[in-house]
Design a protein that fits this description.
33% of the residues lie in helices and 25% in strands. The strands form nine sheets. It has a five-stranded parallel sheet. The protein is an alpha/beta fold and 432 residues long. Helix 1 runs parallel beside helix 9 and helix 10 crosses helix 11.
Length: 432
């Protein structure tokens, strides 16, 4: 190849930000060929999938077509799913692309690279629990979120048909008290209020029973106690039944079974407990660490190959305190910035810098009801507790920062304006 080719596999938040910066700096100037590979044709910010799942966010309006974005930002997009890697030949194998009917659109292919970046994110970990695959929705992708939304609407309608003859209780089970489970629980009550106001369902919030089940001693176990307590009080005020220190042993068609012998009756289930790296990583002949994540040096280079990088949820990056970088969106954002600089340095023959994670705090959105969290303040990294409108502002700004990274200031400003107009001309919930 006449110029170096950098291939990034995975167009999540970090991957898309990385190829955008590389494309603008190297691709447009002809210094390198930048290629993004993803199995989906579009991108949506993963922390918003719980809003897609309830219809609060219309994925058709907020998703980004990779091909269009690539054309304007100096990189090339190839649709495909990683299925193998030949590090000696510096080639990766992509599986065939199929349509909705299972017909082949694109055949299996190989793609050569000079530098490879793996940004494959994570998927839900069911820990081998019986019944999860058959009776639970997962919310790892826009497609899964849309599948839950359709099932949710159908279930609301199904229960509305009998509301005049009895007082039905629609029971939803959410396994996992992390950010996704907590935010989805609140979002369900918000969605029901909206659907009721539009006349889509006759059910009201008192006829919705949401069970949030967490194996740890409290919801959001990684966050400070003050945040956990405030979130739990808000959830219980909405009507969510919070079950902590509760391990799920099995799920069937109409109940969630726990280790202490309880059988929690449910009509709709979501599994949001635990994450792991995608299974394909075990087939790439790369050293893996805990959670099936790729072991990397502090420079984000694989411990096996200096030309293979990994970051985000699929990478296990060591830190000075002996731990590893947590699988969080802000970590992927920070790593994308460092990796951009390190790739430039490697191409120029300069030394690479180590990654140092800086915790910026945590924010939890409870639909329109509230937002709660902490921000890190000053050089001493003291935690500042925030709640209400201020927390909502900071929570919304996280998405705007992501948009600015991939669109630039001007286009992001236009998007903010259009989003404001849509609040007046479109329903607050996707109803179809």
């Amino acid at each position: 190849m006449s110029k170096p080719r950098i291939v990034v596999v995975g167009g999540g938040a970090g991957g898309l930000e990385l190829v955008t910066r590389l494309g603008r700096r190297l691709g447009r100037r002809g210094r390198a060929e930048i290629v993004l590979v993803d199995r989906s044709p579009t991108h949506i910010w993963k922390p918003l999938l719980h809003e897609v799942a309830t219809g609060a966010l219309d994925s058709g309006l907020d998703e980004i077509a990779y091909a269009s974005h690539a054309r304007g930002n100096g990189y090339r997009f190839q649709r495909g799913t990683l299925r193998g890697l030949d590090r000696q030949q510096r080639r990766l194998q992509l599986a065939a692309v199929l349509d909705n009917e299972g017909e082949e659109i694109l055949p299996p292919r190989e793609l050569a690279y000079d530098r490879l970046v793996l940004s494959l994110g994570s998927v839900s970990n069911d820990f081998g629990t019986p019944g999860v695959a058959e009776y639970c929705h997962l919310i790892d992708s826009p497609e899964q979120a849309e599948a839950f939304r359709r099932d949710m609407l159908a279930t609301f309608l199904r229960y509305s048909a009998t509301v005049q003859h009895q007082a039905p209780q629609l029971r939803v089970g959410i396994v996992g008290g992390g950010a996704t489970g907590v935010e989805l629980a609140a979002q369900l009550y918000d969605a029901l209020l909206m659907l009721h106001s539009y006349g889509v369902t006759e059910l009201d919030r008192h006829q919705l029973d949401v069970h949030l089940i967490e194996a740890a001693e409290d919801v959001l176990p990684a966050l400070p106690e003050r945040v956990r307590q405030a979130v739990r009080e808000e959830l219980e005020g909405l009507g969510v039944q919070v079950h902590t220190a509760t391990k799920v042993t099995e799920i069937d068609a109409d109940a969630i079974h726990t280790a202490d012998g309880r059988h929690i009756a449910t009509d709709l289930n979501v599994w949001a407990a635990g994450i792991k790296a995608p299974d394909i990583l075990a087939e790439l002949d790369l050293t893996l660490a805990k959670g099936q994540r790729i072991a990397v040096h502090e420079t984000l280079q694989s411990v096996d190959d200096p030309n293979v990088f990994a970051f985000g949820d699929c990478a296990s990056c060591p830190q000075a305190d002996g731990g590893t970088v947590p699988p969080r969106a802000q970590a992927a954002h920070q790593q994308a910035s460092l990796l951009y600089r390190n790739l430039l340095a490697q191409l120029d023959g300069r030394p690479l810098k180590p990654f140092v994670y800086r915790d910026r705090g945590s924010l939890i959105s409870l639909a329109h009801f509230d937002a709660i969290g902490t921000l890190m303040r000053g050089a001493s990294a003291r935690r500042l507790f925030v709640e209400g409108h201020l927390a909502k502002f900071f929570y919304a700004s996280l998405y705007r920062l992501h948009q600015r990274a991939i669109h630039g200031n001007l286009k992001t400003a236009v998007i903010v304006l259009v989003d404001g107009l849509n609040r007046f001309i479109r329903p607050r919930l996707k109803l179809h």
